[in-house]
Amino acid sequence: MIHRRVSVFCASSAKVNGNYLEAAAELGQILSNAGIAANYGGGALGLMGALADSMLSAGGSIRGIIPKFMVEQGWNHKKVEDMLIVADMHERKKTLTENIDAFITLPGGVGTLEELLEMITLKQLGQVLVPIIIVNTDNFFDPFLEMLERMIEEQFMRPVHKNIWTVVETPGDVLEAIRNAPEWDGSAIKYAPA
User: Does domain 5-179 have CATH number 3.40.50.450?
Assistant: First the structure.
C-alpha cells in the first residue's frame, strides 16, 4: 500500500547547491503524481520552497506547518493555502508527526537533522512506527550514517536499529522504500536499551 500523507523534513536555505533543490522539486512531483499529500515546514525558500512549488504546480496537496515568529519574519510560503500557524517549534514538530504514514528527510541543516534524530529516537522507543526515509542526495548524509554505524558498532544501539530508517539515493526511490520498509511495532521498546 502506498501511504497517503507524509511529512518532509528539509532545508530552508536558498544558497545551497542546485542539485538539492532539484531533488526536492523531483520529490514534490513524485508525491503529487502518486496522490500523496505532504506536510512540510511552511517555508518559501530553499528545499522547502522547491518542494512546495513543485507540488503546487503539479496540483498536489501540501500543508505548511510554521511557527508564528517565522510568519512574522515573512518566511512562510504565500501560495500554500493550507498553512497552519502554530505557537512555536515544539508545536510545529509535534504537528508534523501527527497522522503521518511516513517521514522523508532531504538534506538540511541542524533543524532538519534534529527533526530526523527525534523521529529515529521515537521509533527506537516504539512511539513512532512508520517508515523513515533518508534521501541521500549527493551523499550528503554519509557522515551522519557513518555516525549511526559507529553507534551500533560500539553498542550504543543494537543492529536491529538499522531497521528504523531506510536510505535511498534519489527521490525516485522513495515510494518503493516506503512500500518495502521493515515492519516496526510498539514492542520495539524492548530493543531500546543497547
Answer: yes
